[in-house]
Amino acid sequence: MSILLLNEDELRQAINTSVAIEAIEAAFFTLAQGRTNSVEVAYLPLPETHGQVEIKGTYLSEAPYYIVKTANTFLDNPTINLPVQNEVLMVFDAATGFPAAIILDRGYLTQIQTGAAGSVVARHLANENLHQVAIIGTGQQAYMQLKMLLSVRKVRKVSIWGRSLMNVDTYARRLMEEHDLDIEIAPSVQAAIESADLIITATSSEQPLIEAEWLKPGVHITAIGSNSSTKQELHPEVLRRADVIIADKLSQCAEIGEIHHGLVAGTITLADVQGELSDLVAGKIPGRTSPEQITVADLTGRSVQDSVMAILALEKALFLGLGQRLT
Question: What's this model's pTM, rounded to 2 decimal places?
Answer without folding.
Answer: 0.90
